TrEMBL record:
<dbReference type="GO" id="GO:0005737">
    <property type="term" value="C:cytoplasm"/>
</dbReference>
<dbReference type="InterPro" id="IPR036412">
    <property type="entry name" value="HAD-like_sf"/>
</dbReference>
<dbReference type="GO" id="GO:0004035">
    <property type="term" value="F:alkaline phosphatase activity"/>
</dbReference>
<feature type="binding site">
    <location>
        <position position="175"/>
    </location>
    <ligand>
        <name>substrate</name>
    </ligand>
</feature>
<dbReference type="GO" id="GO:0008967">
    <property type="term" value="F:phosphoglycolate phosphatase activity"/>
</dbReference>
<keyword id="KW-0460">Magnesium</keyword>
<dbReference type="InterPro" id="IPR006357">
    <property type="entry name" value="HAD-SF_hydro_IIA"/>
</dbReference>
<protein>
    <recommendedName>
        <fullName>4-nitrophenylphosphatase</fullName>
        <ecNumber>3.1.3.41</ecNumber>
    </recommendedName>
</protein>
<dbReference type="Pfam" id="PF13242">
    <property type="entry name" value="Hydrolase_like"/>
</dbReference>
<keyword id="KW-0378">Hydrolase</keyword>
<feature type="binding site">
    <location>
        <position position="200"/>
    </location>
    <ligand>
        <name>Mg(2+)</name>
    </ligand>
</feature>
<dbReference type="InterPro" id="IPR023214">
    <property type="entry name" value="HAD_sf"/>
</dbReference>
<keyword id="KW-0479">Metal-binding</keyword>
<dbReference type="GO" id="GO:0046872">
    <property type="term" value="F:metal ion binding"/>
</dbReference>
Length: 251
């Protein structure tokens, strides 16, 4: 079986291949080999939400990649990249949010991903949907993500204010969520015992492989987690193997 690429990235699958890691690393791949957290979320939502349900719309805190994957599954959504949500909140907005006239009563899910234009208005609206009974989902709950040899706020930092307000964590659909593992298993027909999870983060990648009962886990020390992090008593997970960089596997 060819390698499969899993990512918590908010980009759509095609964008991830063409614009992000795989292309820049010179790794040949095609959409059938890639599974993003945005796609995982769309698959999960499509499993319980359909046109027969009155509240069948998703309020998105996220970017175009999430919208692309929701659209591919025929899921209706609002928010996201809509310019009308990318602005400061006004005094009138407070009134319209409070009386519900600024809300869509067909929204039944709040989906939070990496939103590069997060603001108070979006959070206020998302919170109102949650207290009105919408399901709280997150593409992933990574607090940070690595880029340009440093760390930046991740999708988990976008959902955190809502967690603080709502006092209930979202159902996470990226690594280490086993909902994602189940979706991957069904999509790729993989044999878990013959599968090794390779990643650079203990609390997502390695934990994902261990909790999914995969045949092995390999930590690569070029990302978030560093050598020895798993030796602490409160370590999120312990990898079966580790390498300084992927090229070390060439021997």
């Amino acid at each position: 079986m060819a390698p499969k690429y899993l990512t918590g990235d908010h980009a759509a699958i095609d964008s991830f291949i063409n614009q992000f890691e795989l292309a820049s690393l010179g790794i040949p791949s095609n959409p059938e080999e890639v599974f993003t957290s945005a796609y995982s979320s769309a698959v999960y939502i499509a499993g319980f939400l359909d046109a027969s349900v009155r509240r069948n719309k998703v309020f998105v805190l996220g970017e175009a990649g999430i919208e692309t994957e929701l659209r591919s599954k025929g899921i209706q959504f609002i928010g996201g990249t809509d310019p009308s949500y990318r602005r400061d909140i006004t005094a009138e907005d407070y009134k319209l949010i409070a009386d519900g006239s600024l809300l869509d009563d067909t929204v039944g899910v709040v989906l939070v991903g990496l939103d590069l234009h997060i603001n108070y208005l979006k959070l206020a609206i998302a919170y109102q949907y949650l207290i009105r009974g919408s399901i709280f989902l997150a593409t992933n709950t990574d607090s940070t993500y690595p880029s340009n040899k440093t760390l930046f706020p991740g999708a988990g930092s976008i959902s955190k204010p809502l967690v603080n307000m709502f006092n209930i964590p979202p159902i996470a659909l990226g690594k280490p969520s086993q909902e994602m593992m189940d979706a991957i298993e069904g999509n790729f027909k993989l044999d878990r015992q013959k599968t090794c999870m390779v990643g650079d983060r203990l609390d997502t990648d390695i934990k994902f492989g261990i909790e999914g009962k995969l045949g092995g886990t390999l930590l690569v020390l070029t990302g978030v987690s560093k050598k020895g992090d798993w030796e602490h008593n409160d370590a999120a997970a312990i990898p079966a193997f580790y390498v300084d960089k992927l090229s070390d596997l060439r021997g």
